Amino acid sequence: MHLKTIQSIAVSGKKILLRLDLDVPLSATGDIADTTRLKAGTETLQYLLSHGAIVIICGHMGRPNGEIKKEDSLEPVAKWLANELRITNYELRMKETKLGEFVGWELSNNLYVLENLRFFPGEEENDPAFAKQLADLAAIYVDDAFAVSHRSAASNVGITTFLPSYAGLQMQKEIENLGKVLENPQRPLVVIVGGAKLETKLPLVSKMHHFADYVLVGGKLVQETQDILKMQHEQLPPSPTGQKSILLVGDPDESGLDITQNSVENFLQVIVNAKTIVWNGPLGKTGKDATTDSEKGSRLVAEGIIATGAYTVVGGGDTIEFLESQHLLEKFSFISTGGGAMLSFLSGATLPALLPLES
Asked: What is the pTM (predicted TM-score) of this model?
């Protein structure tokens, strides 16, 4: 896939509407708990600013369903961006302002952040009138929000009808690195699928059945759907090339919160020989309600993956948050900002937000 890129256009003096991944978890005190997605988007932001653009950042947080909810406000994100960019006296400068029909914050004379777009019903409905209101704010649209590229919304699909549209730097990296997995991966290729969302994970298992060398399944998927996964795997149509992966489904331990030690050892025997590894979804319960025991399987597998020296791709919010907590995230070759989008891309699905960006 070849994308229209921001490097190919002149942006000096132009108003740019920049769609970023701003949907980040907040702590009980309202602080940002994981900045991975925000940091991924700052490269494009700094590129545009350094080339003389006037940037209006837009995005969403949470699922407010078209209603204004204080807990889903992007104000903490606006403050984080101001601090990250070292904007002098941003506490004094950062003031609520209005751009067209939208409320937002002025961080500097060339940088603005709009309030949560999902406060408007027209965003998720991909309403053309709402998309036009957004488009009226700028001359150029830049999409750097891979994590929502599998969704059709006004701010990533509808708006492209009205403005010339280009891919940001993180979006380009996502397509390049995930494309490596699909086009000509070094083998053995091992795909590890965990977590709890069966409906989003099964398409990847189906695709990789005829493409990967091994598919390893763990997480809550095991506890609830072990038989379904095995049945799904066995009933897949034959591959034209005869390729068929080996499927290993981990067994849940007595607590049901992790895979067994024997399953971990079986996974590691496969991983040790891998040349390309893709991981989406933890293999046991992780996060604030987890225990050291429930995270053990994920931690041992993570350490095993890193030790291989293979090309490694990891994605999914829970997986990234876990690896960050273990200080292991930066040891992976590529960190995808997408969870569902990553799964959809690797499953061979068409991502609607990417189509308008193709050159």
From this structure: 0.90
